[in-house]
Amino acid sequence: QVALRIRSMSAAELAAGARTIAHRRDEQVVVLEDPSDAPHASCSREQSYIFDVAFDPTATQETVYRATTHGLVTGVLSGCNATIFTYGPTGCGKTYTMLGTDGEPGICVRALGELFQAIEDTSGDTEYRITVSYLEIYNEMIRDLLNPSRGHLQLWEDAGGTVRVAGITEISASSAQEVTQLLARGNRQRTQEPTATNRSSSRSHAVLQLTVCRWHRGRGLCRGRGLRRGHLFMADLAGSERAAQTQNRGQRMKEGAHINRSLLALGNCIKALSGQASSKYINYRDSKLTRLLKGSLGGSSRTVMIAHISPASTAFHESRSTLAYAHRARSIRTAV
């Protein structure tokens, strides 16, 4: 599933004289107007993009969660995999959608609440164990956000083709509040730097992983009989904007190059999976991000992308690129 969320116009954009060029036409269609067209032209060049669901600036956090993520929790408890990731330029609301605020929690907090509530409501003959890990990919290096002192970690692939992070901290959790506290702790360790588009821009991809093990009481977890294991990935990707938009130099420019390289690799995988590439080979090894999300993009997983754009005319190029990227992702068909 691919969703598109348009944020409201910012004060800076209004002060710069920007006008609204991105509109939600209906529940699935978003229209982008080319601001280079003359206002008095008889017909304006508009491009329409179709998604599974589209949200305008009036959409609430609850509305976004219900339409995109609500249906994934039951599958994870049953042993399926699910992935939600936010995509788009810096300052377009990715982290707000994923984490939210105390008054308006995002999809991550809501999903955790629903997951633990579902476990509490299950019959007494079933037992669960939930483990949590939280990492960031910064400059193509993996860092454990729950234990940064471990340094840079490596990816390895087991005989079954599952990609894992060697040495990542995994903490057992018994409540949504406990996971939320771990998330807050990890976010304080996340790499953030000011750019021209956002004073607290996240310069890394952050991935929260929950592993849910389920088995019948009395059979024992170690025996493996009746054991089901589901993974829930929630990824807040770094900004996809062009370097010229951020006005970055030096180290920030190098960061941006790594961010764009991994997002390009993700885009190439999406293009190949959607059948639009000349080759059927899916090159997941071009970046750490695509290797980590390999099972979520083309494997047995239910995956949701929530793309974000600004409606401002000053963000036209970033919005057009994001819309095209997300529209292409909608062509992926995974085999669950």
Automatic annotation (TrEMBL):
ATP binds at residues 88-95. This is KIF19 protein. It is found in: Cytoplasm, Cytoskeleton. GO terms for biological process: microtubule-based movement. PANTHER family: CENTROMERE PROTEIN E, KINESIN-LIKE PROTEIN KIF19 ISOFORM X1. GO terms for molecular function: ATP binding; microtubule binding; microtubule motor activity. InterPro entries: Kinesin-like_fam, Kinesin_motor_dom, Kinesin_motor_dom_sf, P-loop_NTPase. The gene is Kif19_0. Keywords: ATP-binding, Coiled coil, Cytoplasm, Cytoskeleton, Microtubule, Motor protein, Nucleotide-binding. Gene3D superfamilies: Kinesin motor domain (3.40.850.10).
